[in-house]
Input
Amino acid sequence: MRYKKWAAIACGGVCLCLFVYYYLQSAGIIRAWYGGVSIDETRYYPVSYVVDGDTFKADIDGREITVRLLGINTPETVDPRKPVQCFGPEASAEMKSLLGGRAVELKFNPNREHRDKYGRYLLYAYRDDGLFLNEDLIKNGFAKEYTVGTPYSFQAEFRKAEAEAKAAGKGLWKACPAIWRAD
Output
């Protein structure tokens, strides 16, 4: 009898702990403890700095985060381990022209990690006028579709946009086709 009483108390304690944990996580408190931020997917956040063609910094309620656009890759310009790649400066300039003085709505991909191994947030970004940045960069030949691990929500759309940009010889597909077609 005594065992059943302690088992019931332990079970209730575990349930209470799980409830508290999920409440704190949904309220964004757990993320704050681990250095994360709470991103409201219905708000627009100002862009504070463009790093390169697929990465920028945004101000989330006074905290600057680094955003890596999910599902795309642009030629390198700032990686100290690699030389500047063909069409990298053009991709970076395009990102600066698209985001200079603008705000973005940031969206996570369901069922995917929210951060990469460098701590950057993996997100879709919509400019304050509705432009879907991830897809626009692919459509105009400044980026290619890029999948790491699990497929993401817009993979089919991004692959179609890439095929169309390749066929039209846009951007990097015209400037350096041998390099990018081999990837």
